[in-house]
Amino acid sequence: MFKKLLCCSLLLCASVAYADRLWQSLNLKNSLVFKKGRGEQQAAMITDINCGYCRMLEKELDQIDNVTIYKFLTPLQGGYSQSVSIWCAANRNSAYVRSTQLQEAPKVASCSNPISSNLAWFYKKQLVGTPALIKPNGEIKYGHATKEEIKQWLKSR
């Protein structure tokens, strides 16, 4: 019994340590930054421009105030060149919104970009899909959620 408890305790400690390091391992410079209001609450969003659930989540996130969302372009379902074009656009955030919400193809562009690094980070951290929201404490929320669910999740510790 003691061995089982010790094992469970070690696994819990390891998962907490992993969660703490997850946010720290993000390179925020590799993200599109969307800030609403003072932006006091923060989360990272692992997103794919071809992901329907990501687009649904975007609509919910747009309704939340006082939040900063760091959006990491991670093309798991194709769309690598589109993600590069968004990153290389004169106004990245606008190109991203047009692509995800209006489903307009971005103008073809090329530049030094973090898309491959974002993908490598995603696989190294063994994440399982998009969309994924990550809080500064490392907690992950996968899939679609309503505005109210996201607000509650952001407030929880």
Describe the structure.
The protein has 157 residues and is of the alpha+beta class. 46% of the residues lie in helices and 16% in strands. It has 6 helices and 5 strands; from the N terminus they run H-E-E-H-E-H-H-H-E-E-H. It has a 5-stranded mixed β-sheet with strand order 1-3-2-4-5. Strand 4 and strand 5 form a beta hairpin. The longest helix is centred in the N-terminal third of the chain and has 24 residues, at 2-25. It starts with a helix and ends with a helix.
Low-confidence stretches: 5-15
Structural class: alpha+beta
Please tell me the total number of domains: 1
Task: Write the CATH homologous superfamily.
Answer: Glutaredoxin
CATH topology-level fold name = Glutaredoxin
Sequence of secondary-structure elements:
HEEHEHHHEEH
How far the N terminus sits from the C terminus, by CA atoms, comes to 30 Å
Largest sheet: number of strands, sense, barrel closure: 5 strands, mixed
3D shape: globular
CATH architecture classification? 3-Layer(aba) Sandwich
Signal peptide: 1-19
Pfam families: Thioredoxin_2
InterPro entries: Thiol:disulfide_interchange, Thioredoxin-like_fold, Thioredoxin-like_sf
Organism: Moraxella ovis
Question: What is this structure's SSE topology?
Answer:
Blueprint: H1 2-25, E1 32-36, E2 41-47, H2 52-61, E3 67-73, H3 80-88, H4 92-101, H5 115-124, E4 132-134, E5 140-142, H6 147-155
Parallel strand pairs: 2-3
Antiparallel strand pairs: 1-3, 2-4, 4-5
Helix pairs in contact: 3-4
Organism: Moraxella ovis
Pfam family, one: Thioredoxin_2
Domain Thioredoxin-like fold: 36-154
